[in-house]
Specification:
Blueprint lengths: L4 H22 L6 E3 L5 E3 H17 L4 E4 L3 E3 L5 E9 L1 H5 L6 E8 L2 E9 L4 E6 L4 E3 L2 E3 L11 E4 L5 H17 L2 E4 L3 H9 L5 E4 L4 H13 L3 E3 L13 E4 L4 H12 L6
Parallel strand pairs: 3-5, 11-12, 11-13
Antiparallel strand pairs: 1-2, 3-4, 5-6, 6-7, 7-8, 8-9, 9-10, 13-15, 14-15
Helix pairs in contact: 1-2, 4-7, 5-6
The structure holds D-MYO-inositol-1-phosphate and calcium ion (2 copies).
């Protein structure tokens, strides 16, 4: 398709900045919080931010497709899909823990073309266009050059399902013994961007959704990192598991994760 991905990114940045301002402004107000599951939250700010993003996208590109966390998918007439997480880190947001972001990734004909992750608290905006590198507030970023797992700082996330939490606790346990340490920050999109700019050497998670990883996985790859499934086979944003690293510690982490995934359940 003959469309300039930089034009799409400009609209994505506009939408993410507007939504970020709304989220930031509402963060200490008495917004309504509802439960989508036992511990899976949605706030009225998630819904308002998503509405704002979708209306900005449709104002510029009424023919584009949408895949958004809270409203699901909307058809379009061209093969361009906006994959939107209005607040990644909703649990943090609901508890006024200042680690959350807006994430927007764009696919053209099924391939990631552009992405933005905007953190309104630290005022950091991570961007990438396929083939053109990754940026933080307009400056080029790169993954870390650390190649030793014992000197690596890692991050993971726990999704909302009990079996996945139990399984990831096993992986967490194994990785804590091999790496310098492991964090759990509560926003997969920011976790990926922190790998992209070298703050973390690697990130893994078991049970993700496309809107968690669409922007961040392109940003990691454009910063020189690797994004695969745990066994190093190709990952798409529709896979539930994700291993994203600086490339140098990928093999070592992959071996530990795949081994620990195969432990019998009663260990
Ligand atoms: C969640 C966050 C969290 C990750 C979960 C996601 P949400 O997204 O990214 O870090 O561990 O798997 O569902 O619900 O805050 O948009
Ligand atoms: Ca999310
Ligand atoms: Ca969300």
């Amino acid at each position: 398709m003959n469309i300039d991905a930089n034009r799409l990114l400009a609209v994505a940045e506009e939408a993410a900045t507007e939504a970020g301002a709304l989220i930031f402004q509402k963060r200490k107000t008495a917004f309504k919080v509802s439960k989508k599951g036992k511990v899976n939250l949605v706030t009225e700010v998630d819904l308002a931010a998503e509405e704002l993003i979708v209306s900005t996208v449709h104002r510029h590109f009424p023919e584009h497709q949408i895949l958004a966390e809270e409203r699901g998918s909307a058809e379009g007439t061209v093969p361009i899909k906006w994959v939107i997480d209005p607040i990644d880190g909703t649990t943090n947001y609901a508890h006024d823990y200042p680690f959350f972001c807006v994430s927007i990734g764009i696919e053209i004909e099924g391939a990631l073309a552009a992405g933005v992750v905007h953190d309104p608290v630290s005022r950091e905006t991570f961007t990438a266009v396929s083939g053109e590198g990754a940026y933080l507030n307009g400056k080029p970023i790169q993954v870390s050059s650390e190649s030793s797992l014992v000197d690596s700082l890692l991050v993971t996330g726990f999704s909302y399902g009990t079996p996945e939490i139990q399984k990831n606790l096993r992986l967490f346990n194994e990785m804590m013994m091999e790496a310098r340490s492991v964090r759990r920050d509560g926003s997969a999109a920011l976790d990926l961007c922190y790998v992209a700019c070298g703050r973390y050497e690697g990130f893994w998670e078991l049970s993700l959704q496309p809107w968690d990883v669409a922007a961040g996985s392109l940003i990691v790859q454009e910063a020189g990192g690797m994004v695969t499934r745990f066994d190093q086979t190709n990952a798409t944003i529709y896979d539930r598991e994700c291993l994203a690293t600086n490339g140098k510690v990928h093999q070592a982490i992959s071996e530990i994760l795949t081994r620990a995934c195969n432990f019998p359940d009663d260990l």
